[in-house]
Specification:
This protein folds into 2 domains: 168 residues, Creatinase/prolidase N-terminal domain (Creatine Amidinohydrolase, Chain A, domain 1), CATH 3.40.350; 267 residues, Creatine Amidinohydrolase. The protein is an alpha+beta fold. Helices cover 37% and strands 17% of the residues. It binds glycine and manganese (II) ion (MN) (2 copies). Glycine binds next to loops.
């Protein structure tokens, strides 16, 4: 058994207990996706599947059978194949799966049609990631139907089909020490990549060159992938929330917004920094930047166990609205402006999301229609922003076209919080001094 399997085994034990004796859970791996003729997209394992198995191959299915005497954990996977090994590399095969991944029973994936219906027999409930892989859902229905067809032989098919999301995603929401270690590593690499980008930036450089610097840092430090396509938006492009073209020349006097994070051992980091292309904030840029930074500090302060999910967002809205009034971009009474969501043309997204194996990670935000309370082990982003669109005629011209977001990854701890990504400079003076040093070097 591989060393890391201890952690996966612990998760499986908990999951098996939740699924319960007499029931079954079935989860399929991700599939290889075709990019174009003979070329595939890089394979990324399904997060639920990996969370429980640590098994990183496509064409695999894991089955949980609590209480089954011959073993509670079954894997269907590819058999070892000499030709495959030669062309694309070795797969674990049945023996490898049994030895390294602590499965009780391993079967060839090609035999699943013959074996899985038998495992469904006489089970009360079938848990699976309903809706996530529609093709596989259909297969499960077909296998269940086969069992139903044998009812006269005295076997019964699962009577209840239940989404496994609720059980698994509540588990994934609270990160273990091991998961936090992976997230810290992802954060560390991404922090350094942002610093590198700041040092590399100057007028005349293209967004794609900055993007390449970031990717270079990720990959040369062992990250297999970005956690999401990086946003590298200079000037007006910083006002486009999901800008990913990353192909414009950077202009003197503009800001550059970079939203980029790598994935480490299938755990994401998600960092945004905004800084001046020429290394020095203009007065207007500084005023709006400082406001977003103040909002971010206020929001991070709200990340405490026992506070509710929306507290950081509420704090952000309060600080931003007050500040926009002070700077003259909004007019009126702050409570009324907040109630009427007058900030929304300039701040249209929420202040964060869960972070984990998926960049927008799993886990409910509300329980019984109430915002859920923060608990130690949860990780969330805190990412306020201000985007003054170029056509915002209602505000003074000097503010238009400025887009700012500041994003950090924050772990809820027993006593409060820990910012995993605060090594990336965000104070005005720290950014300016890092860029100044790079210029004179
Ligand atoms: N990078 C994706 C996000 O910030 O939500
Ligand atoms: Mn984010
Ligand atoms: Mn982001």
């Amino acid at each position: 058994m591989l060393k890391e399997q201890k952690e996966f085994a612990r998760r499986r034990k908990q999951f098996l207990r939740m699924v319960g004796v007499g029931n079954i859970a079935v989860i399929a791996s991700a599939s290889i996706m075709q990019r174009n003729s003979d070329v595939e997209f890089p394979f990324r394992q399904n997060s639920d599947f990996f969370y429980l198995s640590g098994f990183d191959e496509p064409e695999s299915v894991i089955v949980f059978l609590p209480g089954r005497e011959q073993g509670e954990y079954v894997l269907f996977c590819r058999e070892f194949d000499e030709t495959m090994a030669l062309w694309v590399g070795a797969s674990a095969g049945l023996e490898g799966a049994a030895e390294d991944f602590a499965v009780d029973d391993a079967f060839p994936i090609d035999d699943i049609d013959d074996i899985l219906p038998g495992l469904l027999e006489d089970k009360e409930r079938l848990y699976f990631p309903m809706g996530a892989q529609p093709e596989f859902d259909k297969q499960l229905m077909d296998w269940s139907q086969q069992v139903r067809g044998r009812s006269r032989a005295g076997v019964s098919a699962p009577a209840e089909f239940i989404s496994s999301d609720h059980l698994l995603h509540e588990m994934r929401l609270i990160k273990s020490a091991q998961e936090i270690k992976h997230m810290k590593k992802a954060a560390k690499i991404s922090v350094a990549a942002h610093k590198r980008a700041m040092q590399f930036t100057e007028a005349g450089v293209n967004e794609y060159q900055i993007d390449a610097e970031i990717k270079h840092h990720f990959m040369s430090n062992g990250a297999k992938s970005e956690a999401y396509p990086a946003i590298v938006g200079g000037g007006l492009n910083g006002c486009v929330l999901h800008y990913t073209q990353n192909n414009a020349k950077l202009n003197d006097g503009d800001l550059l917004l970079i939203d980029a994070g790598c994935e480490w051992e299938n755990y994401a980091s998600d960092i945004t920094r905004t800084f001046p292309v020429n290394g020095v904030f203009s007065d207007e840029q500084k005023a709006l930047y400082q406001l977003v930074l103040d909002a971010q500090y206020a929001a991070i302060e709200q990340v405490q166990p026992g506070n509710h999910w929306n507290d950081p967002h509420d704090a952000t809205v309060k600080v931003l609205t007050k500040g926009l009034v002070k700077l003259g971009l909004l007019k009126g009474r702050v409570p009324t402006l907040i109630k009427n969501e007058a900030y929304k043309p300039y701040y249209m997204h929420r202040t964060g999301h869960w972070l984990g194996m998926d960049v927008h990670d799993v886990g409910d935000y509300k329980i019984d229609k109430q915002w859920r309370l923060l608990e130690p082990g949860m990780v969330l982003t805190v990412e306020p922003g201000l985007y003054i669109q170029p056509n915002a005629k209602e505000v003074d011209k000097k503010w238009r076209g400025i887009g700012i977001r500041i994003e950090d990854d924050v772990l809820v701890t027993k006593k409060g919080h820990e910012v995993l990504t605060d090594g990336a400079p965000k104070e005005v003076k720290d950014i300016e001094s890092l860029m100044e040093k790079a210029r004179v070097a």
